[in-house]
Amino acid sequence: MPVTGQSVITRGRTARSLGALVGASALLLAGCVSNTEGGVPVAGENPEVSKVDAIAAQLPEEIASDGELVVGVNVPYAPNEFKDSDGNIVGFDIDLMDAVGDVLGVTPVFMEADFDRIIPAIQAGSYDTGASSFTDTLEREESVDFVTYFSAGVQWAQAAGGSVDPNNACGLRVGVQTNTIEDIEEVPAKSEACVAAGQPPIDIVKFDSQDSVANALTLGRIDAMSADSPVTGYAIRRSEGKIVAAGEIFDAQPYGWPVAKGSPLAEVLQQALQHLIDDGTYQTIAENWGVEQGVITTSQINGATS
Are residues 43 and 132 in the same domain? Predict the structure, then answer.
């Protein structure tokens, strides 16, 4: 859930370059967690999805005539969006948006960008939407509309054998991805509470990518990490026992696809997703990526509660 200095960009991760393509992910240290290696956790093939004419007919003319839906993404943020060993962008968000494209009879074109540039690009009309684990918040809804598609909370992780309490982490080194909700809101609030109680603040250690956070935890450079629940869960599964959960999932909020404020595309995306929810395709895609814990039954436009 990235977030930036601009209020519109907080992610579920929480915010992610207009026109600036990101290079391949940096090579990771041997023995560390990697979000770009092979063996992605797909349990099976996704169902075939047919075009639904009644929904596709409502697409804005410029998208329908182009036959493309331009989607901003930022990687790596496994298992939601990241690169496989061949350099292809894959993940739960990607498969779900591809299925939406099938319903609408258009091809999603994924534009890799810095997280904090995606929403401004949508506002400028360069991108139609974003599929990059954006948390739908009331603050962000002032700048863009959101179509909700998932529910994610925050979860901490620690090195195996640790005893970190997310509610009592005063003085510990806690890793976060820069411009996420964990970076901008969650961990700073915990740190302020420490200071108010006369305890040392949390040492918030910021990294540019989520895989770097997990690697730092594996190497003992930080005491814990905080991230969106599907991301933490994936890091734990990929760590071969080096990382374990620290506490339960908390503060669940919806992920949403941002679109320009007032755009008719919001209702079209909402209807397409609801179709996939109702016919079971959505559930299958979520299970294929191991994120079924966060599935929703009803997609909303602007479903933020905070």
Answer: yes
